[in-house]
Write a structure and sequence with these properties.
Distance between the termini: 67 Å
Radius of gyration: 21 Å
Bound molecules: fe (ii) ion
Number of strands: 32
Mean pLDDT: 96
Low-confidence stretches: none
Largest sheet: 7 strands, antiparallel
Strand order of the largest sheet: 20-21-22-23-24-25-26
Length: 485
């Protein structure tokens, strides 16, 4: 007899966090207000975590849970919605067993005894990536899972035709929609608790054209990175893995409040011996907005926590350092000097997270940033940051409601930076369902130009990507830059 399905009565699973566990298909979402902009044709893919089975543990955390991929397909004046579980190794094993087999977040020593120690642990729950005609669901501790871009069926777990020799691949790759190159990396690349990191560059056809392997200062967490035309910027914040504690059933990461931050600038097309190292104050961060090189200086814009960014990862003494608010902050690295320190400058005094850009301007000088702006009452809105003036304008969907990460879509392949739309899943918390809002990216505060209704909640998505209609057909974005020849 299989066990009854009963989730514990903990905060994580109450209200909006209640597991959804449902696969849906809707042909044509209801339009609540406005009009879907003409020319907006393509697919928004988003990935998040849901809960397949209860774990029987009280230390589940929101970033864990099996991957659920969602798509909003804009076609012929309507928007279709589909969501499907990603059939990862662990999803299939648990489905077979009819119960949860995998234990604490990333801790294989807490798995059910029937799970072999070599089984891949990835949930594919963090983002969707589209490159060279293929769609993937990603989680940073496992290889990519390839997904059918039309049906969302899981095709396979893949090492990109043998080109990724590491155990895993980041969930924050950069697909350059102008050059169609893919830049990504693996950290703890030789397995749990290892210090190895490998940076990869793939060409528009998916062929690996550079690989740089080096060692991190410690077995850290590297959730995101940023790229410029010449450099890949890897911050190593002191969030570290202690394998002895992991083997004893402890948390996979610990925040070290007394340790500095290290940053490696890795040449995009160069070698490990050309890496430039910097060292700065204790801090943490998950997400980078962008990086830009001007002359000998590289600027990294990051949602920066002057302390701990995860309340569920303890300090080495077992205490929990209080979570501090994230502020958009610029770290400036001067490559013209032979010095290790870098400048830290706060750009905005409003707490923001999940930063995005017009992705044609990733690694290039840019003027427009987008983010989730938090309110003290727990609600949130979508913010547009003018990076030249430091001003932010915010659309708040309503009292108690929340927004998920936005996706910028250019109006046309060569429209100026920031000329386009923002697509935003909205949590209508009081109504226990979702909307998809479409905003004019140049007039965010005016609110949606179109609002589409979902008759249920899209519980949680972390990140995603937009695939225009032509890219789905050709495998290439081939976006231009305004003013470029
Ligand atoms: Fe992330």
């Amino acid at each position: 007899m299989a066990e009854p399905i009963q989730f514990p009565d903990i905060e994580l699973y109450r209200g909006w966090g209640e597991p959804m566990r449902t696969e849906c298909t809707i042909h044509g979402l209801e339009l609540l207000e406005g009009a879907i902009p003409e020319g907006l044709e393509g697919t928004l893919y988003k990935v998040g975590a849901d809960r397949q089975y209860p774990s029987g543990r009280d230390d589940d955390i929101f970033i864990d849970g099996e991957g659920m991929i969602h798509m909003f397909r804009f076609e012929d004046g309507q928007v279709d919605y589909v969501n499907r579980w990603v059939r990862t190794t662990r999803y299939e094993m648990q489905r077979e067993a009819k119960r949860k087999l995998f234990g604490r977040y990333r801790n294989r020593y807490t798995n059910d005894p029937e799970v072999d120690n070599s089984v891949s642990m990835g949930t594919a729950n963090t983002t969707a990536m589209f490159h060279a005609g293929h769609l993937y669901a990603l989680k940073e501790d496992d290889l990519p899972y390839e997904i059918d871009p039309d049906t969302l069926e899981t095709i396979r777990r893949t090492d990109m035709n043998g080109q990724i020799g590491s155990a895993c691949f980041t969930a924050h790759p950069k697909v350059d929609p102008v050059t169609d190159e893919l830049l990504g990396f693996s950290y703890q690349a030789r397995g749990d608790g290892t210090k190895d990191i490998v940076f990869y560059v793939f060409d528009a056809g998916g062929r690996k054209i550079n690989e740089v392997e080096f060692e991190m200062p410690y077995a850290g967490m590297v959730h995101d990175f940023a790229v410029t035309d010449e450099w890949a910027v890897f911050p190593f914040f002191p969030m570290m893995t202690d394998m002895e504690k992991v083997k004893a059933g402890g948390a996979y990461f610990e925040y070290h409040p007394d340790k500095p931050t290290h940053v490696a600038l890795v040449p995009r097309y160069g070698k490990a011996e050309d890496i430039r190292w910097f060292e700065g104050p204790n801090a943490t961060a998950g997400h980078m907005m962008n990086a830009v090189r001007v002359g000998n200086k590289v600027m990294l814009d990051v949602c920066y926590y002057e302390g701990n960014c995860f309340e569920f990862f303890p300090t080495p003494s077992g205490d929990v350092a209080p979570m501090v608010p994230p502020f958009l902050t610029r770290l400036t690295f001067d490559l013209g000097r032979n010095a290790k320190e870098y400048e830290v400058e706060r750009l905005l005094n409003v707490p923001v997270e999940m930063p995005r850009t017009d992705d044609r301007y990733q690694g290039r000088p840019y003027r427009h940033g987008y983010c989730i702006a938090r309110s003290p009452d727990g609600s949130s809105g979508t913010g547009h940051v003018n990076m030249e003036t430091g001003e932010i304008s915010i659309w708040r969907p309503g009292e108690g409601d929340m927004v998920q990460e936005c996706q910028f879509v250019p109006r046309s392949a060569s429209s100026p930076e920031g000329d386009g739309w923002l697509l935003i899943p909205v949590n209508r918390v009081s109504r226990n369902r979702s909307d998809l809002a479409i905003l004019d990216a140049q007039n965010v505060a005016a609110g949606p130009v179109a609002l589409l209704k979902l008759p249920f909640k899209v519980r949680a998505t972390f990140h995603g990507t937009w695939v225009p209609k032509h890219a789905r057909e050709t495998g290439r974005y081939e976006y231009g830059l305004a003013g470029a020849a």
